[in-house]
Amino acid sequence: MHFPGLLSLQALWVALSHAMQHYPSVWGHYDVCKSQIYSDEGITWDYMACQPEATDMTKYLKVKLDPPGITCGDPPETYCALENPYMCNNECDANTPELAHPPELMFDFEGRNPTTFWQSSSWKKYPKPLLVNITLSWNKTVELTDDILITFESGRPEQMVLEKSLDYGRSWQPYQFYATDCLDAFTMEPKTVHDLTQHTLLDIICTEEYSRGYVWKYDKTVRFEIKDRFALFAGPRLHNMASLYGQLDTTKNLRDFFTITDLRIKLLRPATGATMVDEDNLSRYFYAISDIKIQGRCKCNLHANTCVFDGGKLSCECEHNTTGPDCGRCKKTYQGRAWSVGSYLPIPKGTANICIPNNPGPVNCECFGHSNRCSYIELLNTVICVSCKHNTRGQHCQLCRLGYYRNTSADLDDENVCIDCKCNPFGSDNVRCNGTGFCECKKGTTGPKCDECLPGHLWHNGCQPRVCDNELLRCQNGGVCHNHQRCQCPVSYTGILCEKQKCENGGCDDSNSGQGALSPSNCPVLLLLLLLLTALLQGISCHPTL
Ligand SMILES: *[C@@H]1O[C@H](CO)[C@@H](O)[C@H](O)[C@H]1NC(C)=O
Ligand SMILES: *[C@@H]1O[C@H](CO)[C@@H](O)[C@H](O)[C@H]1NC(C)=O
Ligand SMILES: *[C@@H]1O[C@H](CO)[C@@H](O)[C@H](O)[C@H]1NC(C)=O
Ligand SMILES: *[C@@H]1O[C@H](CO)[C@@H](O)[C@H](O)[C@H]1NC(C)=O
Ligand SMILES: *[C@@H]1O[C@H](CO)[C@@H](O)[C@H](O)[C@H]1NC(C)=O
Ligand SMILES: *[C@@H]1O[C@H](CO)[C@@H](O)[C@H](O)[C@H]1NC(C)=O
């Protein structure tokens, strides 16, 4: 008995366990760059797209505050937070470790009570705005993998902007605006991340969700929602990461959206807790941040699964014979083809797009992919491609063979760059055609491929001039036009259109000259005579044998 269902299940299990050997950890995580495979040719490597694990990126950043002297405590001052009992009548003194609030405290371990925090000096110069820029730099491209969370101990600012740079701080773009009143602060309609769709995901929004410090006094965090944005492609619980990866693979803008080298938190107006600022007690207004959470991974262009922090600098440990801080180019001797980023597709293993060794030869052997062999011609001191394929020819296989023409909308390295001229062998003079595929036609023939006839011509293994028809070129004297090519004449007529009598009164053709004197009516008599003569001659010659 056969159990096809059972058999295929078994086959599936074999295939699965085979796959598990190659991908030891959960698939779709791209955490393996290569694995050994055992084949008929022995042990070889199988290369895969790979990326480092996501991790806490705050351990690797440099922080810079603007203006530089904005941290409280120099000179010492007392302050009193609006709603926080731990923060009233406290003193900030930069020179006393227990009373100092330096920027590092934004990134230290939280979980103690009271928490440790960075704090700015208070709003003594009101109504001049209290502005602080906090710039976080990695000197490395980083891909964000989770929400950015900023925890304020002083009430969340009434206005702030989160900005990003992708070019090490040379240029900046806003990531998100935050305000108690978006229209008033930034003349933007208030939105939330839930207003975004797959099509508007890259829109920069202003949100009022994270600014109302004293309405929601226990909520101290300002969030930049990465996961909600991922969810637009990967589904609510990010269960379909394959879909997100597929999208990231094909949409550079999307990939870049989540990629940063620097972040900047622009604090524009502290929490006041009221519409009016208490001008007599400005020590109530300041910024204090206890924690910043940033999860991400080194961007290694899917060519590394490890990123090292060495000498204060992050860099990818590049595989696939790539190099550079982001594995962004091929090693010097592995430039046999152009570098390219690894691909998440096909799911789940992706494509490594490894760099391959340089072509051998005194100079680069460039054949647009139509040959992988070159030959050095000493006499000309030059290298030419050998055996160009795909109907190409020339030093770099950059021309089309005779009988083919160049498809100008295809790239030179396209396998189908040369198109067959397809000249009709009967209608054209040769196999050659011009740059738009027009062949060279014989007389009477036309059309791009020389397979049509000019007026007055007929196709018969090429175009032949029309001899007769039933109109102007009518066969004469009862002749019948045969295929427009010839007149079938009655016995006594000849000529292209049967226009000539075979034996006219005035004189006949040379071949009939012997009977010139005879009228056509006499011909049967002559024939009879001839037959008689033949019979007689035959009778004489045959006698002896009788
Ligand atoms: C903060 O950065 C902005 C550029 O985005 C700059 O114009 C501004 O002067 C900076 N503010 C401070 C206080 O340095
Ligand atoms: C950033 O990294 C590069 C090397 O990739 C190094 O030359 C440069 O000095 C670093 N810049 C900073 C500010 O650390
Ligand atoms: C400032 O405000 C705090 C708390 O609201 C209060 O305890 C303090 O007395 C005020 N100081 C002045 C000078 O008004
Ligand atoms: C680089 O290329 C060499 C030669 O093809 C190969 O042996 C080696 O495994 C490659 N390295 C990586 C990391 O792919
Ligand atoms: C020429 O190449 C383009 C691009 O590859 C292709 O779309 C087109 O069909 C080709 N034309 C012909 C006639 O083969
Ligand atoms: C090819 O020949 C045709 C017909 O003579 C002409 O219309 C066309 O412009 C020619 N193309 C080129 C590239 O010379």
Automatic annotation (TrEMBL):
InterPro entries registered for this protein in UniProt: EGF, Laminin/Netrin_ECM, Laminin_N, LE_dom, LMN_ATRN_NET-like_EGF
Disulfide bonds: C421-C433, C441-C450, C489-C498
Pfam families: EGF_laminin, EGF_LMN_ATRN, Laminin_N
Residues of the EGF-like domain: 464-499
Domain of life: Eukaryota
Residue ranges annotated for the Laminin EGF-like domain, each copy included: 421-465
Keywords: Disulfide bond, EGF-like domain, Glycoprotein, Laminin EGF-like domain, Repeat, Signal
Stretches assigned to the Laminin N-terminal domain: 46-297
Signal peptide: 1-19
Coiled-coil annotated spans: none
Protein name listed in UniProt: Netrin-G1-like isoform X1
